[in-house]
Write the structure tokens for this entry.
Amino acid sequence: MRWPMVRAVLAREFLEIVRNRLLLASILVPPIILTALPLAVIAFAGHQGHLPPSAVAQIVANHPNWADMSTEQVIEAFGLGQFLVSFLILPGYIPLAIASYSVVGEKQSRSLEAVLATPIRTSELLTGKALAALIPGIVASWTAYAATLSLSALVFGGRLAMVIAEPTWLAAVFALGPAIGLVSVTAGILVSSRVNDPRAAQQIGAVILLPIIGVTVLQASGNFLIGPTEYVAGALVVAVIGAIGIRIGTVVFGRETILTRWK
Amino acid sequence: MVGTPAAAGRPETASPGAATWPVAAGSPDAAAWPDSDPDRVMVRAEGLGRRFGDVWAVEDLDFELRRGEVFGLLGPNGAGKTTTVRMLTALIAPTVGTASVDGFDVRTDPEAVRARIGLLTETPSLYERLTATQNLEFFGRLHELPDDVRTERIEKLLRLFELWNRRRDLVGEFSKGMKQKLAIARALLHEPAVLFFDEPTSALDPEAAFIVRDAMESLKSGGRTIVLCTHNLDEAERLCDRVAFLRRGILRVDSPARLRASAGLPTVEIDLAEPPSEPLLANLHGLASIHDITAHGTGISVVVGDARRDTPTLVRALAAAGVDVLGVRVASATLESVYFDVMGLRPGANADSV
């Protein structure tokens, strides 16, 4: 792997992302919304909290380290916990959007043939494209997480902010999130090689996000508790799936395949 | 490569026709060449073929191109021109046979081959959200040009192709001709030993096509080895040292002049004021090197050995016989007529007659 080649692809991809307003909006807007939404919802729910005492007791039983919190704080912490899924959706959605636009855009402009006629290896091209899609998703997710953490501390106080700094959150955001991003990138590339509309690629690729959302919804309901260990293990499984996807991607992204089968 | 410093500094207002295009013998480009031996084989194909599924796109290709040669690949859509170029540029692997570019095998040294070729595709294949400079920067990096060399060449090429003033504009705002010029600049950026031009003027308006042809003529005069795929037979005749008629395999390959000469003798068409008499025709037939003569109304068609030598003789004979000559024209075989003969095609003929 020649990293100057990868960097060249990465730099060009970033330049194109910055100049694609639609894509740029789809990268920037979701993190802003997903940062503001939990704060607004919790601020509202905290004051309007009507959970019965038995439900609050059940929540505290599931989270013994919340025992020192007031009832209002428990309700706010529980509400905040529902938004963990946001920080898993971001690294899934953004790379999918970028990868879809990147590959479909190249197909539409037929710009890949000139690139493939240079000494670059397809693995270097694929790595550059994958990183260009993955990095913004991870950065957006981590930035949104940092903003949510900071604003939570500011608005609700340090105790509540500590809830989203618990190991479960850290494992989800910093281990499972990037792994989801990896799968998302490979899904974006694989699906985009078969369709000619980035939106179609995104819709098909978004199917991979459904199981993740399902698991986190189950977790939020309290019926299926996932701890940091499970998140790290899940991240490893997802990363393996991503690695398999990359392996398939190198075949799909072969010179001959691109030139003779991509339509 | 690419021209002299004087050319590089040429005002950008110069008309396309006045442009001096890149690469001239004795230029810095020539000095940069590792081997300026004119007999050096730059492209070699031996038994080259490619099959897609059960269908052979091309097979049994055998040819050699020497340094500075411009080689035309002519053939209808689906004849295998693009497949041939893709094999020679190490973009797709041959099913059978071997090919090399500048001594590097397309199978075993594909990266070395791609480092030595410049490819101009039918569509410019540019990144439209990037500026002209950014496009060239990207490709310069992929060819691993050092920063200073890359910067210098980009400026030189953009000036030569009269795009310097538009270097910061997005390529999406360029006309087709400007895009094609930028694509040529991209193909030249790393000073390739062999250039492959695949239908370079097919999508262009006449002015843009003129600009691109002008560029190719200058590249030719600068000693570049060029493989040109085209449907434009005039373009092929003007630019190519040799052309190959391709339809799955090479049907004929030779210089345009020899191909035309092989197609038959020239015919002199003469329009007369009145229908020729039999004695007149007999008299003309008796002239030396007149191969055949036919009358049709007030016109006669005379097949001659050498139009340049025999046409004045014919006109003098007619004048001596007191016949008024209204018009004379020489109909020689064109590359187009040879093409149709070789391909077994006739324009306007229905499918059954093909």
Q: What stands out?
A: Chain A has a mean pLDDT of 83. DSSP finds 13 helices and no strands in chain A.
